[in-house]
Design a protein that fits this description.
The protein is of the alpha/beta class. The chain is 48% helix and 14% strand. Strands 16-15-14-17-20-19-21-18 form an eight-stranded mixed sheet, sandwiched between helices. Strands 4, 5, 6, 10, 11 and 12 form a six-stranded parallel sheet that branches. Strands 3-2-9-8 form a four-stranded mixed sheet, with helices on one face. Helix 6 crosses helix 11 and helix 18 packs across helix 20. It starts with a strand and ends in a 28-residue tail after the last strand.
Length: 725
């Protein structure tokens, strides 16, 4: 394995985020959500008479406009706004059955979304014109936007069908005599770019769904005199069943009278509308079509993921609250007593001593803990636990005064073990080997106990099925915003989770800050493992797989010093997350095993996979999608979703704080947590996953202590007991 942390993936992550943003913007542009084009004012001056008095097909390439009309008994059916996956195929079927041909003025974004349908239009002998990329009003948009709209449409046609088109119809245009001056200027610009501008003789206004009879009547207005006409219809933009029925009637009524239904260019003897493009243009067009389809799929997928993630988070929150309530009622009812296993004969597993207050050995691994080791040791020995307590501090090759401070304390029951630096697991195993008791408490070197902590922590061992006990970890340095965020996380996240895991008998982690174990159970699982970076999680899972109970004791309080800077927090959580994934992978076979191992694997590992790995991995994309919706779509949905989510978290947080006897005042920082802290935790998961996939080996990170407990000396100077409800 390579050692070290990957760095280049942050560049890939940034590029990935940029690609996602571009795709979202592309889809928003194509749908009109981003950069919606304005509409021209209705009181604009009319176009020059040379435009309004001419025919519907106008060639402006030579400077002076040259207009054409349809020959007698020749109908050019034209369809705007497609292709549409529902209505365009129906119209094509009608035209094919009657041997008619038509001209489709396509919107480029829809061409990109429906490339196969575009190819079908051409394959069946019809022709295609441009109707801009987003159905923009060319009379109202700037010149650059109009040119962009037309260029993108040509590229979409090149990517979908390998052609460009010479024909163009401006959105919102109609008959020549209805042209305005701005529309005429837009038509002139199109003529300069080589387009033949197509208007109409008969605007059926089928977009308003006036009824099949009205559409037919408007289309046949000149039929009695044998005139030809360009007829405007629509194959997209809503329910077009009236249009489909009207086209059938129009053809059926006029074909027996000798009318022919053909394309514009064939009717006027012009060169074909479509021009084949070289391979390079096809490649560029294919890229645009692929990007747009990917963008559309991404938006739809992200909408679904956003919904699923929201539902999962709400269900998890409700589940945690229900389990926390049940846990509270079970452990706090007056008649509650630790249960003995039913129907069990012989000595209890684990060899619990008959003494109700057995001797206990507290092992404290210490590496450069001079800032708080004295406070830790003093709090461990200042206890109301009736049994014998010994404290073993294992100095793991510290480079500071940790060992000297411990030696200078000279307290009864305090022992110092020195060893070369080998990491926390080796220090813990060395302390366990030196311990004399059958009940062991493992404590971090930055942790302070209350006087009653040991008594509460060891009480569950009265049940012989209990193999290990998790205490209740509290953040001591909770001043400042970062401290409050971690305090909220410990109470809402960690401790609510442990209540649920306790009831489900699948506890994944006894925190390194406070945990109690039977020596026999530790021996059964081979001691504290050293092959993962989350030795506490690895050890707890191994114990759960033996079938022994691992319980949570909420009254056993331990105060710990949390990281005081974002950099330190990152390093700590990076190790935690990476180590947890290592432990999950190590114990993956528990999912298919029986007994206690299978119970743990099937109850806990899927939960951890979904809520600690998969959802955090998707969270940055979900946040990006939410921001996109906030700024470019309807902002009401993301705002309401976010508000409800934070409100639900606050309600759950208030209940969790109440359960722990804490004040609810820190909850004011919860909304701010959504904008910095949450994203940091997501990036930690992402970094950990990349580290694992690249096969890098992450080393231990030490957290710089600030000396939160440096002045600890008496109980009044300690953080003090928290009120218990």
């Amino acid at each position: 394995m390579r050692r070290g942390e990957p760095r280049a993936h942050w560049i890939l992550l940034s590029l990935g985020g940029l690609v996602l943003a571009v795709l979202l913007l592309l889809d928003g542009f194509a749908s009109g959500a981003v950069g919606e084009a304005p509409r021209a004012k209705g009181d604009a001056a009319p176009a020059p008479s040379r435009a309004t008095e001419g025919g519907p097909v106008v060639n402006l390439s030579g400077g002076a406009p040259r207009s054409r009309r349809m020959p007698a008994k020749t109908i050019a059916l034209t369809f705007d706004d497609g292709p549409d996956p529902e209505w365009t195929p129906r119209l094509l079927d009608v035209l094919r059955r009657r041997g008619a041909r038509a001209t489709f003025f396509t919107v480029g974004a829809r061409v990109a979304s429906e490339p196969e349908l575009t190819r079908r239009v051409l394959r069946e002998g019809h022709e295609i014109g441009s109707h801009t990329y987003t159905h923009a009003d060319l009379a109202a948009v700037p010149r650059w936007r109009g040119r962009l709209e037309m260029d993108l449409t040509q590229r979409a046609l090149a990517g979908a069908a390998g052609v460009h088109t010479r024909l163009m119809r401006m959105p919102y245009s109609s008959r020549p005599d209805g042209l305005t001056a701005p529309e005429w200027r837009a038509a002139e610009r199109a003529g300069e770019d080589g387009y033949v501008v197509v208007l109409t003789d008969r605007d059926t206004e089928d977009w308003a769904r006036p009824g099949t009879a009205a559409i037919v009547r408007r289309a046949l207005a000149a039929g009695a005199r044998g005139e030809g006409a360009v007829v405007m219809l629509h194959d997209s933009g809503g329910d077009r069943s009236e249009t489909v029925a009207a086209v059938e009637q129009i053809i059926d009524r006029l074909q027996p009278q000798g009318y022919r239904f053909t394309t514009l260019t064939r009717a006027l003897g012009m060169p074909p509308a479509e021009v084949a493009v070289p391979l390079r243009e096809r490649a560029v067009g294919w890229t645009l079509v692929t990007a747009q389809r990917a963008a559309s799929a991404l938006t739809g997928t992200m909408g679904a993921v956003f919904g699923v993630a929201g539902v999962l988070c709400v269900l998890r929150l409700l589940m945690l609250l229900v389990f926390a309530h049940v846990h509270m009622r079970r452990v706090r009812r007056p008649e509650h007593r630790p249960r003995r296993a039913r129907g069990r004969r012989g000595p209890p597993p684990g060899g619990l001593p008959p003494d109700p207050f057995p001797p206990v050995s507290v092992v404290v691994p210490a590496y450069n803990e001079e800032a708080g080791i004295a406070a830790t040791v003093a709090s461990l020995l200042d206890t109301d636990y009736p049994g014998t307590v010994e404290v073993i501090v294992v100095d793991d090759g510290s480079a500071d005064a940790t060992a000297a401070i411990v030696e200078s304390m000279r307290l009864p029951g305090l022992h110092l073990v020195r060893k070369p630096n080998g990491g926390k697991p080796s220090a813990l195993n060395a302390g366990i080997a030196a311990a004399g008791a059958d009940v062991l408490v493992l404590v971090d070197g930055d942790t302070v106990f209350q006087r009653d902590t040991l008594r509460h922590l060891l009480a569950p061992f009265a049940d012989p099925e209990v193999g290990a006990v998790s205490g209740n970890t509290k953040v001591a340095n909770r001043g400042g915003l970062l401290g409050r965020w971690q305090h909220i996380e410990y109470v809402i996240g960690f401790n609510l989770d442990r209540r649920m895991f306790d009831l489900l008998r699948c506890m994944p982690t006894i925190p390194g800050a406070i945990g109690a174990f039977r020596r026999s159970v530790l021996a059964e699982v081979g001691g504290v493992p050293g092959d993962t970076l989350a030795e506490d999680t690895d050890l707890t899972i191994a114990i759960c797989r033996t079938g022994r109970r691992v319980v949570y004791e909420e009254k056993a309080l331990a105060w710990t010093e949390a990281p005081s800077s974002l950099r330190q927090l990152w390093r700590q959580r990076y190790r935690w997350c990476y180590g947890t994934m290592q432990a999950m992978w190590k114990h993956r076979r528990s999912v298919v095993e029986g007994g206690g191992s299978g119970r743990f694997g099937r109850r806990c590992l899927p939960y951890l996979t979904v809520f600690q790995v998969l959802l955090p991995l998707f969270a940055p994309v979900i946040d990006l999608f939410a921001l996109f919706g906030l700024f470019f779509l309807d902002p009401v949905v993301p705002l309401i979703s976010w508000t409800l989510f934070v409100a639900a978290q606050a309600a759950a947080g208030a209940y969790a704080l109440w359960l722990d006897g804490e004040s609810v005042r820190p909850l004011w920082a919860l909304p701010l947590q959504q904008f910095v802290y949450r994203q940091l935790m997501y990036l930690v998961v992402l970094q950990s996953v990349v580290t694992a996939l690249l096969g890098s080996r992450l080393g231990w990170h030490t957290i710089r202590r600030t000396g939160t407990f440096a002045d600890f000396g008496t109980r009044e100077q300690s953080p003090g007991p928290i009120g218990y409800r």
